[in-house]
Specification:
The complex is a heterodimer of chains A (114) and B (115). Chain A is 0% helix and 51% strand. Chain A has no helices and eleven strands. In chain A, the strands form two sheets. In chain A, strands 2, 4, 5, 6, 9, 10 and 11 form a seven-stranded mixed β-sheet that branches. In chain A, strands 1-3-8-7 form a four-stranded antiparallel β-sheet, with no helix packed on it. By secondary structure, chain B is mainly β. In chain B, 0% of the residues lie in helices and 51% in strands. In chain B, strands 2, 5, 6, 10, 11 and 12 form a six-stranded mixed β-sheet that branches. Chain B has a four-stranded antiparallel β-sheet with strand order 3-9-8-7, with no helix packed on it. The radius of gyration of chain B is 14 Å and the shape is globular. Chains A and B meet through strand 5, strand 9 and strand 10 of A and strand 5, strand 6 and strand 10 of B.
Amino acid sequence: DAMVIQNPRYQVTQFGKPVTLSCSQTLNHNVMYWYQQKSSQAPKLLFHYYDKDFNNEADTPDNFQSRRPNTSFCFLDIRSPGLGDAAMYLCATSREDRGLNEQFFGPGTRLTVL
Amino acid sequence: AQKVTQAQTEISVVEKEDVTLDCVYETRDTTYYLFWYKQPPSGELVFLIRRNSFDEQNEISGRYSWNFQKSTSSFNFTITASQVVDSAVYFCALSEALDDYKLSFGAGTTVTVRA
């Protein structure tokens, strides 16, 4: 089945220790998104790629970076995680970055910062 | 300003009861899209429906139905004869033409269906 895969499902890191979360998709979609979802809150868009074009949200901290080496994979790098970065990180894809295209989400990676 | 408001934080029902989730949105665009997503305890957001601003027809899919009313800027979601498997957080979201890649989510409504 075509899908969005996120690894790992659970990640524990130490305060200040860089961490990378990965996302892959078999849908061959042009757009990949990263969302942060804190407990009992709505998902918040961090950035997205349209093909190789990176689009950062204005309020995304510099501590968060992303890479998309090819169509299938996208990575979220947190350079120096703080306690406030503990959250669920959701990856999503869509065929195009037009509103009529629904986004397909992966199962998420739950990040714990010690 | 909040673009999507889901006033109900939590709803608890007994199995087989109907439950309606309210969603009120705010936009100045004439072209926009509305979505409902389900987030079960496993965490994955599951797409349920998309509706564009020019299509006010209500929709029914099995036990799910949606009522879109532009006059009140509402896009409500009803689960008929609820089941335990319907227990989840439900998010309403808006995508506007000016920022049409961006989903603005409501705060979500947690639905608990008790056996």
